[in-house]
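Input structure tokens:
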């Protein structure tokens, strides 16, 4: 959503697409998992408006599809071959998620965008990211956020919060540090899949994370 209060920002999409293209040009296989919080947050809406949690979560999943299509459009404008794969069948809009097909797209140097979470209510985008990363044999999860990494407290509220440069999975869980939700962290821990948490709003950080530069927080 860029600097907007909600919705999709075309300039932000274009910036993301350009950074993804730069990374892909290095020979890196890129798969993206997008959320939908800029449009609709299921858990929040369930509490605020009294929506049934399952209904609210499905609405949130559909919001991720809108973001995925916007990002696909931005990537294809700069000649990056892209496929959107959805966990909820909608044949006129995107391909159904099939692991072998996703792997084939990656082998052909296409950027794969996973949308609609896991296709199930009560599971977050974090869990979807961990699940898809494990399924496709990813080397790392790059968790893009609005802050520089994982802090001892919310840096937006607590100016004395300190940045962790490295964390163990078990410590992230014990301290409830909100790196990702507990299900996602546990899945990464069980499969020895590292997570790099970094600030997406700083242009060039995606490439730095991929190149192994010392940015953000490494959880492993």
């Amino acid at each position: 959503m860029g600097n907007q209060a909600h919705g999709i920002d075309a300039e932000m999409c274009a910036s993301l697409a350009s950074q993804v293209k730069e990374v892909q040009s290095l020979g890196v296989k890129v798969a993206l998992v997008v959320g939908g919080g800029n449009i609709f947050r299921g858990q929040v809406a369930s509490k605020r408006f009294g929506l049934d949690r399952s209904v609210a979560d499905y609405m949130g999943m559909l919001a991720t599809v809108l973001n995925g299509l916007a990002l696909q459009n931005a990537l294809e404008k700069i000649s990056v071959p892209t496929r959107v794969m959805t966990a909820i069948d909608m044949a006129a809009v995107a391909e159904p998620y099939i692991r072998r097909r996703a792997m084939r797209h990656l082998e052909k140097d296409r950027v794969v965008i996973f949308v609609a979470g896991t296709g199930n209510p009560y599971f977050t985008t974090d869990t979807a990211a961990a699940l898809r990363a494990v399924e496709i044999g990813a080397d790392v999860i790059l968790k893009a956020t609005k802050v520089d990494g994982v802090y001892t407290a919310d840096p937006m509220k607590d100016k004395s919060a300190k940045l962790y440069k490295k964390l163990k999975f078990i410590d992230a869980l014990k301290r409830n540090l909100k790196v990702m939700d507990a299900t996602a962290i546990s899945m990464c821990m069980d499969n020895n899949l590292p997570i790099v948490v970094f600030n997406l709003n700083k242009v060039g950080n995606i490439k730095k994370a991929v190149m192994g530069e010392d940015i953000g927080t490494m959880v492993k």
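The helical segments are 10-24, 42-49, 53-77, 99-107, 125-136, 169-174, 182-190, 205-210. Strands lie at 31-33, 82-86, 95-96, 111-115, 141-145, 150-151, 163-164, 166-167, 195-199, 217-219.
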